[in-house]
From TrEMBL:
SMART domains tied to this protein: IG, IGc2
Stretch list, region Disordered: 267-289
GO biological process, one term: interleukin-15-mediated signaling pathway
Coiled-coil intervals, chain numbering: none
Leader peptide range in chain numbering: 1-21
Record carries keyword Transmembrane helix: yes
Listed name of the protein: Ig-like domain-containing protein
GO cellular component, one term: external side of plasma membrane
PROSITE patterns noted in UniProt: IG_LIKE
Domain Ig-like: start-end pairs: 31-131, 142-220, 225-307, 320-403
Membrane-spanning ranges: 429-448
Biased composition range(s): Low complexity: 271-287
Lineage: Eukaryota, Metazoa, Chordata, Craniata, Vertebrata
Single GO MF descriptor: MHC class II protein binding
Amino acid sequence: MMSLECFIFILMTFLVTGVQCDMTEVFAEVGSLAVLPCQYSPASNVSPRIIWSKAGKGTVWRMEKSGLQMWGSSWSPNGNQRVRCPHTQFERGHYSLQILGVTEEDGGVYSCRLEQGGLSVETVVMLRIITVSISPSAPMSGKDVSFTCQVTPGFDGSAAAVQWMLNDSRFSRQTRVTSPGDKFKSIVKEKASPRLSGNWTCVVGYGGKEGRASAPLTVTGIIQPPFDDTKVYAAVGSAVTLPCVFSSGLIPSSPIWEKLQPGSLNKRAPSRVAPSFSPSSPSSQLPWDQSASLKEVDLKDEGKYRCSGIIQGERLARNIQLVIAKIDSSVPSKKKGSVTLTCQVSDTSEVTQHEWVRVTYDLNGTEAFGSIHKGKTLSISPLSEESWGTWACRFSGRDGTLGNITYHVPMMSGLSGPKSSGYSQNTTAVVGLSVFLLALLLILAQLYKNHRRKQGIFQYPAMETIIHTVSNEREEREKYRVKVLP
């Protein structure tokens, strides 16, 4: 409600003879620059006398026709002027007053009076200061938190409209409005949670004008993951990290990781966690980072996990769901020479799309991606060169890619299953037959070579006679040697 002092100040401007009066609303956030408008089209080139004053405070700033400037004592502490009226705007008839770093006490009624050639023109400006405060400024998750939007001075009646915004989105929870004294307040009370973290803005509308002020909120506790039941996707055989990060500087006591029973948020699973589950933080991690890891994901690791720790005597907890992805291969009975790959995700509640893409690598190890095939299943021919390499199945949700899993088709591979086994047996038989034929060919070649050698000898009878003569003489000498020996 407008104070009596302000009302008398405005009334006096109407009673002054020859004065024209107009009223303007201006909003400014505490600590910002406030600009109070004052515009007049001069009737001559003679500089006017300008006087800015505030109701109940006297002169704020004034300039005589000679150009001499003077400041009110409260507006120039220690010689530092908080107000100014830029001369560069005078030629265009703008005599707006600028107030640097406005405070709550700066709110109120201001008057701009221009005197020129016996004519006096006065503009009245209502400056309202908006302040947003949050208490406590950094609440712990689960604790009460209060948001207050205060406007000084307040409004007449309930004509003001207030809207709260959280991160530029409308916050539609119920608010409480009070008008104690000459102040206006809009109050929101909530339980602190990560969903409330961010920038809070109060938008106030009154008299056709709008003003706003903001303040940030940081909720302490478990900041990663920010929400309960956050899903983490991992492929079978891969490593995965389950995040559990507390606010910087908050070191939890008695941290615990546990696996919950299916369908329960409170009971522990009998098997607790997998052998590869590592609940202890590596030495390289900060003490408020209690994230855990699985070195090699298995199908049985799928499910919900809970990370918790005690902060300020209260146990804070966050539930995380581990979703497992795998690729199944099958040989359709009606399609010989082909394999069907199926992308399986243990929880598809967030999955909206599946995509298959072939990934190949050149000699330098550079990746190359083929065309994209949409759908949960993909039919390929392992005997076809176009199917060799790595196939990746990417599954996505509304906010983008959730995860992926790969399947490798080796070069010259056969079909999987019984048909693949038959193909391997045929290969062995072909190799064995080839070796047998090669050995038989070598034997035949040797026989032919011996046969040709014999034919070559019988073609020269004289040589044959010499060979027999030499042989007979050798036998005679052997007989004679035997007889001579005693």
